Amino acid sequence: AGRRTGEGYFSFDGRELVFQSEREPGNPFYQIYRMRLATGETTRISPGIGRATCAYFHPDGRRILFASTHEDPDAELAQAIELEKRAKGETARYSWDFDPAYDLFLAEPDGRLTALAKAPGYDAEGSISPDGRLVVFASNRHARSDALSAEDRERLVVDPAYFVDLYLLELETGRTRQLTTTRGYDGGPFFSADGRRIVFRRFSEDGARAEIHSIALDGSDDRALTKLGAMS
Fold first, then answer.
1. Mean pLDDT of each 10-residue bin along the chain, 232 residues long
2. What digits encode the pLDDT tens for the residues 20-38?
């Protein structure tokens, strides 16, 4: 259904799927949907406004983590501009948008949304540890708050992905800490099955190549798992 669909992940019991899809006429951007595999019944989880992405089930099977721009005051304006472009046939090649209005939200079964660790900058690509205590996510928030050189300020405008690193969030306390500091985009993080390590992709500084890496939860013991010199 719809124009495009992706980022599908199973619930921990394997009975449901959460995914992002562009399928509603009034919004040209992804929203988050939950599907029961046995029946195909599908329900939208995100508010329906702005962009939404990177959903992931909490181990309890009831809550869902995702990123969204629905609290951006210009969210509906961005939708209208994109729809107008498409009506004129002005469609560009698809590329990922590191929208600085992305924030993390936890959706409750009753539809309530809890904002997590809000800060200026791109916050997305989150996943939850097997014990449900931790969230690992990708963010360039430090580039919005740190003192940057003139060169880096210019680069942040044209290449925000270059400043994306991994962060760890404790759900109970809200405490957040940065795990990686390497130049270039670190993203797509997931916990190992025992919850003791994180696997992710690390891009080269020019964004042309990516290798798979693994680190411990404190950011130490960074291991390159691939050395292919390609987009891994």
1. 93 96 94 97 96 97 97 95 91 80 95 94 97 97 92 92 97 96 95 97 95 97 97 94
2. 999 998 999 999 999 999 9
Among candidate residues 1, 29, 34, the one with its CA nearest the CA of residue 16: 34
Per residue in 40-79, pLDDT tens?
Answer: 999 999 999 999 999 999 999 999 999 999 999 999 999 9
Are the C-beta atoms of 201 and 211 separated by less than 8 Å?
Answer: yes
Give percent of the chain above pLDDT 70: 100
Question: What is the 3 state secondary structure string of the chain?
Answer: CCCEEEEEEECCCCCEEEEEEECECCECCCEEEEEECCCCCEEECCCCCCCEEEEEECCCCCCEEEEECCCCCCHHHHHHHHHHHHHCCCCCCCCCCCCCCCEEEEECCCCCEEEECCCCCCEEEEEECCCCCEEEEEECHHHHHCCCCHHHHHHHHHCHHHHCEEEEEECCCCCEEECCCCCCCEEEEEECCCCCEEEEEEECCCCCCEEEEEEECCCCCCEECCCCCCEC
